[in-house]
Amino acid sequence: MGRVKPNIGRLKSDIEEISTFIDKTKLGHTRRSFTEEYKQARMWLRGKMEEVGLKTSIDAAANIIGRLSGSDDNLKPIMLGSHTDTVENGGMYDGTIGVLGGIEVVRVLKENGITLRHSLEIVDFTSEEPSEFGLSTIGSKGMVGELSEEMLQRKDNLGRVLSEAIDDLGGNYKAIKRLARKKGDVTLYLELHNELGPVLDNKRCPLGVVTGIVGIHRYKVLVEGESNHAGTTPMNMRYDALAFTSELILKLQGLCRERNSYDIVGTVGKLKVEPNASNVIPGKCEFEFEVRALKNEVIYEIVSEFIEEAEKLSKEENINIKFDNISKSSSVIINEDISGVLKDSCDKVAESMYLPSGAGHDANHINNIAPVGMIFVPSKDGKSHCPEEYTSYEEIEVGVTALIQSLISFDENLK
Ligand code: GLV
Ligand code: MN
Ligand code: MN
Questions:
Q1: Which ligand is closest in space to the CA of residue 124?
Q2: To the nearest whole percent, how much of the chain has pLDDT over 90?
Q3: CB 360 less than 6 A from any atom of ligand 1
Q4: Distance from the CA of 45 to the center of ligand 3, in angstroms?
């Protein structure tokens, strides 16, 4: 079959249209999960899926699914997916190109008279980014039965409960466990995404075939010292929660840096200080940290060393500390048969290279029930999760072409 290409003008207009559903008071693109903008974008998206002839539904975890029937009812579906929520002050391509690229794939298949053997499911996963409930990849966790009752009862700052927020999006939290998909229910999961990092752009390489995806462990930490007057309390009589937290932040950095491997990273990206006043010694800090690596055992090792050292330090400095795990997602090593087919398909379209993913994805969870594969397109200057995030439409066109090529190849060869 000759190369089948997307209509990039049409995809561009879809990407631009969904990008109008944002919080306009924020920088860049902000479409936080469970907000009004998110709901509007999802409604628009569902309409778009229907418009291209997909049969749509919302599953128990509130994922939006558009289905195209295949010619062989005995085969389990191939899934293409990503997400439409963003971080605060984020970019306009992270997630959206995978979902809208999937819809474009459907249009192209139809226009070219191609009927796949497998049914195709285009999925917009609920809340891939860390939500206000402190949890990320909610939809993909839910789809494979990994959303625990404890997670479903978590609250956001407004006091909303996650289970209710899922139902508010059209899900059915009570049915999540029962309706979870099992191993063998899905033939293959493919995701097109911008790299979110610098490798492809640095190498001027248009396509990346992902070899592995980092695992991520996240924790919430409460540090309690004593607030007091910042002028009258001598340095040796203080229990400064923020100064202590700063020591911990550097400690975490050190534990990751000393391993000297570029996939091993640790970050404190969220911090609350109380009372947060210039002339009061901080009495309390709450922060969240995450550790990522391609090897799960490395994450466990760093986290346990960090907790051990923090607890030792807390005794020495008479400051209380408490750790609560938020989430643990396992790393993924992509099956070489899958990445091999992706590489061959990508090479037919443009130059491509193998690379691991330092970002987490819904694929981390879908991997528990089906083989997964990911194709990356470049992120300009390696920027993402910020307003400067950029991928050109020419680059997106190459990515979607590679996705179609790969899909056709898998459809022919997978049972
Ligand atoms: C997802 O965007 C992540 O935080 O890796
Ligand atoms: Mn992201
Ligand atoms: Mn993403």
A1: 3
A2: 99
A3: yes
A4: 17
